[in-house]
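Risk mitigation, structural track. In case the binding assays with farnesyl diphosphate fail to produce interpretable data, a predicted complex structure has been prepared as a fallback.
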Amino acid sequence: MHFKEVNKDRIPQHVAIIMDGNGRWAEQHGLDRIFGHKEGVEAVRSVVEGAGEIGIQYLTLYAFSTENWNRPKDEVDALMGLLVRAIVAETENLHKNNVSLRAIGDLASMPVEVQQNLEGAITRTAENTGLRLVLALSYSGRWEIVEAVKKMANELKNAKIDKSELNEELIGKYLPTFGLPDPELLIRTGGEYRVSNFLLWQIAYTELYFTQKLWPDYRKEDLFEAVNDFQTRERRFGKTSEQIRI
Ligand code: FPP
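Fallback model:
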């Protein structure tokens, strides 16, 4: 789908993506898995560009899950190397395009080189006002909920907060996604119909979109297609159709 065909009136503010299928793409091409991840970086580039073009304000990409640490060390190392290279190569480009970068996840568990480069890129792009690109790294939905509960338990104990204050809004403040609107659209590539521990709290009312396409084959035109599909949906938030239409 072409940029011009996208209805610009109802662009989701926040789109989240589970980028799946790199390994299978590589296998299909008779290559080592890491080449799938490498090609995946091309897909990231195209999708970030496309998101900016149609005015998506927040784009969150699941780049590395808590569970991904269980992959063979070679693959984890290669992914980390790829991440560093992508950050180094793309920061100026992101900056030129007014994109600001942010990361969520257990960043302290990432290799120091990733942490340093990431921090540099985040600082460099901090003042930008265009697309907010959020990388989920060493991230999982349950992990962030556990972390939030620990912090809240501490603050309850120290009487910094009171039990009577506990509500959805307060819990949201303890999550690393604080300040981001909930995603309106979650896309998963690679033909699997799962949420895989991604943004569990935040996707309560999110529209889900699944595609068979493997991530390395995904391009901005496919994102436009997903946005177009999103625009045909009626979001009721628990209400009836009649209530929504008035
Ligand atoms: C899932 O495919 C993909 C990942 C675990 C890594 C995603 C990383 C990138 C696209 C590259 C770096 C990202 C940025 C933001 C520059 P899979 O390996 O699970 O595929 P499979 O299900 O076919 O095995």
